């Protein structure tokens, strides 16, 4: 058939035409062509006969017994043939010629041929061809009238007729009446049609049906449920499979396969999917061939006519070929591999089939997880379930048995058989573990290895499967052989490793526990006791027995403690006593068993399992914590009830609290951490759960009297823990007690313990001794967490003495204790952290209530510390005085007079902030001026200027003080306001000359860049002198003669500065000369002073007229030298500025004129109502056009690539080429810029 199609493709307008549809039955194949021809073939693709149709057929269907054939045509004809006689039974010709898209045979209880048809408009009919005397008549039942739209999918099966629209799939039954029994919502990509298929499957021992739907990239499955006495079937979803691409068509193949035509990214492929387990069985690449398809009016394509199947064979029709896909059962493929000698490949295929098919089908019959019941036994273990294996599982096992028999029969000689048997054992173990046939592994297969004397090889290869958690059970016989093998190899740890990964509830406890105790394999022993027997105390007791024995065997208790003390003393000398010493854990030693006991106890107290962690579950956490802590706090050694396990009472067994004492000796930190974990984990919720469990147990007792509670079963509380630890650490060395005090401090901080007052005081004293005064955080946290009555205040204060923050907490007092106000202030002030010390003001502000309104005592207390408060924060101290001590300013000044600098700081803030200033008398103000001269001489001049005429100071007294402190600028200012301006100026100039001499001297030993302070001082002195000149200049503005006299002050200063170059002998200095100052530096300084002077003369604040400046320059002749150029340059700058101002004025006038003109234009437009608009084209050319839109509220012009458009209201924006922008807002009679 493929050759015929390829040959037919070579014809252009001749031949039978292109293939259009395919139909398959048990005996025949039918292919329709575009030239009105039907080719009827057998399965060997031999053409048996041909049929013809009046128009090109679009769909075909062959009845299941291959007795009838029906075809739907492009002009709407439906034709029924009798394939036995090759005659047409009936032709149904419609009135309206609409293409038929689907035609399917459907079962008819009357035995007459019946088909379901669907046309491109979505009309679905059932046609019954009823025989009569005149031939066949057609009975038509309309199932769907086409109002729902196009039907994109149609499939007929035992579950009913399945129809798909664009959004949903419907299942319709026709018997006993037509009814929709299920609506299956869906939806895929636009232009992608769904494809449907009914799939018959055998699952869980019974036959069932699945409705399969491919929509987009999803394969969805709907399981048909047959309920007893139900008239119609029901459906339930059974999963979704994600395909590699868009599913275009599908058909049933094999026992439970679904062959799908998938449009993958690389081209069309055929994927075979298992509909029960939803996995990909195989893939076939079509090699770029395109299957035939039918195209709907919407443009969507349906590939269903190209893919049909019969039993395990699928056919795919394209324009040039007919592909045949044969689905071979797994057993046939395995048999073929075995015939070729590929045993390992065949067994691998068996495992793949088990994983993909058998395992999932057995998931409902065989549990996948282990039961955690205490009564768990071998008989109900999941790998040894009493349920009989399925025939398919037996078939898989038979392949392994055949392979094993053949491998044993063909084993090589003994000399080279080791590798052969190891390979054989690994194969059979993996096969049985994967298929869960441990009954076969430990019975038939293991006995064959024993017969061949290869039992050790077999058990050696079991370990890897156990360690990776694939094998959870080993039979007693095999376990015994495994232990013997490990003993011979000298590595019993392998047994322990395996036991940690096995299900310990099904082991023979007596034999296994004896083995573990005998060989001291405590890791596995702890695991078996806790996970298998739910016993957590017994294994810990066994560990302590080993601890006691190892300590007694190695050395007596006293010698061991002495060695440990020496080690800790060595650590303290190395300043690392707080660090835990690292010990080499040698098996069988005191440290080894002790470390294991500490780790095990901690896991139990945390509610986790040994050794991997994980929650205990089942509400056992509270019980386990209580039992473990009870054992640790036992005062006496517990003698075993079993006489065989009793030990001699010696060593640690004779001491009080032997269990916790030995743990503390090993590692005090780790042992104390056990109590910390216990106290943190024991909460109220666990206690409530324990009470509920106890109540349930009491209710379950049948008429049994309640037994008195054993005191040993009571929960160990914090009080009992303190008693035990105090007794253990009493008389201990300083190092061990340090660990204890640290533990108590942590528990007090977390509020887990309530300790006696004596222990609290000792803990506070230890904290104070081990924390510096600058780091008191832990001590403070502990004090804040202490409950009332847990300490005596005076003793606690003595314990923390020297730690200010801790003392503050105790001095403040709590719960009715009297606050020691003064001591608290003193502690605040003594703190080294300024940010913390400033908090004293917050305390003082709220402190008056502590004195019960006794202001006198409060003020006296604050006054006694006021000098220190000013040093901490002057602003807050002044605020404090203003709030509480405004009437005691005189007392404050007397208190602060002992430290003049502190008094100055206080008075300075009072004066600057105008707070309490009215409380200062003239003496106080004069004192403030004197203190300023002493401590802030650079501020005196500005202060006197600011306070002039306010009556704050007496000028004569102030002048005397300033002269006594040699404050030149302030003295000169006071002389000036006293009427002696000449003396004032002379004083300032002499000061300037003296400072220049000092600067010159200093420049001999330092660089010019380092003389910044000296230059600033010179500029201040010159600035004060120029201020004097300016003030006198302003006073003499009345007449020209007086004015010239006022200007003379500036020129005096100018002359003196020019003369200073000669005075300083700068011309005689030689650059680079030894011992001389650097002339470049002094010249720069003089140049800067002269520039400062000239800028002041020509500034706007100066009233010196230009003619006076010109006359001075002319009179000086060439004596001014370089200064003439400076002054001329400054004057030229002013001339240029005048020109700039005139130009700016002209521009401003022009802009105002333009704005006024624009405003008039906009007003005119606003009055027109409907006027002109302006449009700019995309080419940048302006064109005028009439445009409506300039109304009363204005319109907006918006630009774009095609020009501007006018919009209503708002701001007008015109954007021109080049980025220019005009914005205006138009309103009636006004314009806004």
From TrEMBL:
All copies of domain Vacuolar protein sorting-associated protein 8 central, residue ranges: 458-675
Stretches with biased composition (Basic and acidic residues): 706-715
GO BP: any one term: endosomal vesicle fusion
Bias type Acidic residues, positions: 683-705
Region feature Disordered, mapped onto this chain: 683-715
Pfam families, alphabetized: Beta-prop_VPS8, TPR_Vps41, TPR_Vps8
GO cellular component assignments: HOPS complex; late endosome
Family as reported in the entry's similarity comment: Belongs to the VPS8 family.
Record protein name field: Vacuolar protein sorting-associated protein 8 central domain-containing protein
Lineage: Eukaryota, Sar, Stramenopiles, Ochrophyta, Bolidophyceae
């Amino acid at each position: 058939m493929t050759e015929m199609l390829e040959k037919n493709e070579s014809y252009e307008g001749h031949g039978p035409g292109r293939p259009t549809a395919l139909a398959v039955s048990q005996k025949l194949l039918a292919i329709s062509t575009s030239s009105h021809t039907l080719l009827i073939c057998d399965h060997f693709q031999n053409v048996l006969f041909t049929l013809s149709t009046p128009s090109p057929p679009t769909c075909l269907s062959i009845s299941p017994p291959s007795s009838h054939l029906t075809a739907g045509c492009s002009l709407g004809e439906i034709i029924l043939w009798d394939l036995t006689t090759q005659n047409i039974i009936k032709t149904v010709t419609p009135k309206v010629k609409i293409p038929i898209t689907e035609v399917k045979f459907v079962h008819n209880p009357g035995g007459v041929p019946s088909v379901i048809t669907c046309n491109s408009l979505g009309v679905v009919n059932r046609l019954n061809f009823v025989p009569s005397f005149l031939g066949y008549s057609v009975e038509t039942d309309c199932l769907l009238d086409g109002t729902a739209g196009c039907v994109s999918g149609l499939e007929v099966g035992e579950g009913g007729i399945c129809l798909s629209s664009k959004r949903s799939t419907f299942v319709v039954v026709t018997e006993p009446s037509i009814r929709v029994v299920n609506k299956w919502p869906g939806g895929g990509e636009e232009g992608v049609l769904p494809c449907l298929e009914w799939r018959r499957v055998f699952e869980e021992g019974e036959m069932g049906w699945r409705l399969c739907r491919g929509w987009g990239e999803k394969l969805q499955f709907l399981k048909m449920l047959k309920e007893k006495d139900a008239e119609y079937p029901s459906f339930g979803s059974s999963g979704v499979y994600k395909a590699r691409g868009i599913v275009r068509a599908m058909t049933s193949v094999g026992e439970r396969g679904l062959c799908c035509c998938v449009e993958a990214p690389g081209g069309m492929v055929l994927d075979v999917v298992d509909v029960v387990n939803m996995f990909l069985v195989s893939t076939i690449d079509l090699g770029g061939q395109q299957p035939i398809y039918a195209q709907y009016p919407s443009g969507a394509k349906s590939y269903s006519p190209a893919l049909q199947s019969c039993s395990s064979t699928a056919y795919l029709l394209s324009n040039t070929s007919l592909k045949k896909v044969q689905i071979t059962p797994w057993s046939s493929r395995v048999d073929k591999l075995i015939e070729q000698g590929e045993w390992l490949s065949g067994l691998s295929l068996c495992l793949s089939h088990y994983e993909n098919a058998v395992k999932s089908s057995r998931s409902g019959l065989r549990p996948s997880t282990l039961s955690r019941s205490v009564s768990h036994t071998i008989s109900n273990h999941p790998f040894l379930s009493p349920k009989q294996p399925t025939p398919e599982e037996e078939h898989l096992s038979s392949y392994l048995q055949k392979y094993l028999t053949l491998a044993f029969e063909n084993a090589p000689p003994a000399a080279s058989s080791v590798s052969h048997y190891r390979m054989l054992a690994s194969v059979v173990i993996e096969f049985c573990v994967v298929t869960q046939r441990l009954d076969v592994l430990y019975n038939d297969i293991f006995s064959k290895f024993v017969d061949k004397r290869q039992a050790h090889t077999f058990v050696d290869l079991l370990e890897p499967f156990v360690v990776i958690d694939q094998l959870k059970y080993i039979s007693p016989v095999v376990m015994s052989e495994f232990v013997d093998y490990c003993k011979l190899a000298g590595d019993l740890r392998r047994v322990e490793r395996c036991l940690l990964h096995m299900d310990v509830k099904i082991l023979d406890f007596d034999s296994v526990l004896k083995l573990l105790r005998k060989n001291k394999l405590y890791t596995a022993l702890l695991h078996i006791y806790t996970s298998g027997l739910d016993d957590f105390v017994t294994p810990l007791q066994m560990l302590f027995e080993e601890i006691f024995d190892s300590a007694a065997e190695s050395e007596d208790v006293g010698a061991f403690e002495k060695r440990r003390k020496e080690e800790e003393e060595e650590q303290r000398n190395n300043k690392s006593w707080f660090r835990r010493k690292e010990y080499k854990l040698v098996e069988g030693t005191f440290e080894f068993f002790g470390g294991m006991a500490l780790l095990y106890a901690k896991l139990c107290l945390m509610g986790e399992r040994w050794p991997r962690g994980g929650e205990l579950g089942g509400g056992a956490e509270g019980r386990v914590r209580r039992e473990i802590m009870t054992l640790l706090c036992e005062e006496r050694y517990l003698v075993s009830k079993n006489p065989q396990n009793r030990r001699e009472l010696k060593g640690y067994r004779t001491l009080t609290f032997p269990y916790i004492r030995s743990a503390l000796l090993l590692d005090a930190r780790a042992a104390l951490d056990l109590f910390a974990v216990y106290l943190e984990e024991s909460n109220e919720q666990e206690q409530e759960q324990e009470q509920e469990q106890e109540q349930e147990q009491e209710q379950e007792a049948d008429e049994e009297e309640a037994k008195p509670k054993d005191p040993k079963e009571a929960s160990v509380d914090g009080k009992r823990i303190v008693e035990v630890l105090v007794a253990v650490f009493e008389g201990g060395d300083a190092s061990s007690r340090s660990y204890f005090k640290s533990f108590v401090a942590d528990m007090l901080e977390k509020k887990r313990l309530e300790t006696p007052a004596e222990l609290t005081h000792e803990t506070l004293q230890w904290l104070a001794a081990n924390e510096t005064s600058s780091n008191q955080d832990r001590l403070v946290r502990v004090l804040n967490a202490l409950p009332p009555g847990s300490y005596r205040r005076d003793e606690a204060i003595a314990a923390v003495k020297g730690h200010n923050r801790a003392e503050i907490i105790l001095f403040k007092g709590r719960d009715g204790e009297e606050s020691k106000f003064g001591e608290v202030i003193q502690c605040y002030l003594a703190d080294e952290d300024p940010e913390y010390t400033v908090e004293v003001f917050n305390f003082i502000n709220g402190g008056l209530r502590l004195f019960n309104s006794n202001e006198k005592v409060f003020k006296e207390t604050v006054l006694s510390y006021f000098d220190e408060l000013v040093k901490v924060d002057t602003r807050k101290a002044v605020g404090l005085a203003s709030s509480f001590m405004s009437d005691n300013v005189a007392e404050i000044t007397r208190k602060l007079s002992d430290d003049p600098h502190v008094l100055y700081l206080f008075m300075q803030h009072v004066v600057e902030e105008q707070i309490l200033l009215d409380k200062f008398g003239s003496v106080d103000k004069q004192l403030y001026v004197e203190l300023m001269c002493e401590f802030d001489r650079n501020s005196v001049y500005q202060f006197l200027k600011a306070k002039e005429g306010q009556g704050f100071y007496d000028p004569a007294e102030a002048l005397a003080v300033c002269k006594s402190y040699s404050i030149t600028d302030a003295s000169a200012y006071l002389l000036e306001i006293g009427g002696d301006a000449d003396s004032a100026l002379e004083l300032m100039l002499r000061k300037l000359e003296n400072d220049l001499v000092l600067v010159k001297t200093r420049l001999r030993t330092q660089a010019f860049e380092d003389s910044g302070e000296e230059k600033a001082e010179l500029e201040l002195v010159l600035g004060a002198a120029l201020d004097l000149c300016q003030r006198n200049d302003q006073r003499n503005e009345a007449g020209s003669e007086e004015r010239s006299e006022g200007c003379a002050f500036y020129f005096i200063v100018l002359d003196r500065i020019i003369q200073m170059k000669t005075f300083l002998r700068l011309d005689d200095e030689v650059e680079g000369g030894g011992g001389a100052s650097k002339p470049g530096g002094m010249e720069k300084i003089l140049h800067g002073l002269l520039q400062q002077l000239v800028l002041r003369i020509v500034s706007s604040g100066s009233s010196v007229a230009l003619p006076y400046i010109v006359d001075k320059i002319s009179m000086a002749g060439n004596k001014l030298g370089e200064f003439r150029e400076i002054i001329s340059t400054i004057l030229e700058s002013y001339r240029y500025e005048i020109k700039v101002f005139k130009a700016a004025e002209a521009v401003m006038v022009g802009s105002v004129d333009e704005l006024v003109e624009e405003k008039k234009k906009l007003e005119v437009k606003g009055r027109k109502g409907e006027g002109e608009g302006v449009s700019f084209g995309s080419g940048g050319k302006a064109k005028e056009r009439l445009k409506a839109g300039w109304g009363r509220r204005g319109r907006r012009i918006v630009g774009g690539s095609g020009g501007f458009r006018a919009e209503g209201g708002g701001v007008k924006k015109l954007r021109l080429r080049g980025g220019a922008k005009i914005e205006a807002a138009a309103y009636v009679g006004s314009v806004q810029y």
